Amino acid sequence: MSWGFLRDLLSGVNKYSTGIGRIWVAVVFIFRLLIYIAAAENIWKYEHDEFECNIKQPGCENVCFDHFFPVSHIRLWALQLIMVSTPSFLVVFHVAYRENREKHHNQKLYKSPGEIDGGLLCTYLISLILKTGFEIVFLVLFYKLYNGFEVPRLVKCDIRPCPNTVDCYISKPTEKIIFLYFLVATSCLCIVLNLSELSYLIFKYSIKCYLKRYIKKCQ
Known about the structure:
Layout: H1 4-14, H2 19-43, E1 52-53, H3 60-68, H4 73-85, H5 88-105, H6 118-145, E2 154-157, E3 166-169, H7 173-218
């Protein structure tokens, strides 16, 4: 599939992000999207064809593969990329709403439509919470589906129609596990960046509100 839409989305979000948000965009674009397109997709491309069992019983290899890999790593990774990026649409839509509102009233209603304050701040915080939540959900999903972040060289299968316990071999397990660890590391980094940005915005807004109240009291 073409990932151009996601690239355009991330480019649009970058204009309205804080410094930490721009780092998050860079991590997603360089260390996740480009790595996925350039390398990871090819490693898992023929995973079903290269999955071999030491018996040629019709249907045995298929059921064993489906048991150990209920969802392809690479498809789950692609879904994760899409899900963690889509909450950013909320910010883009909110800015577009502000711009259209100014055009409709034909006057300046905001200091800047892309400035993170008021309702846009709430939208931005919600998008950060959603992105963090999706990251955590997918990490747990990876861990549960594959019994940890491991890719074994050999798996034993005794599911029908296999006549007995058979040995099945996974292709390029070392290469796959390296990319799986890379996936986990970048996901954790994105979670840390999202939480840092969330804390920064809340702290900044709290200080701003406190200063306003203090100035009013002084006046």
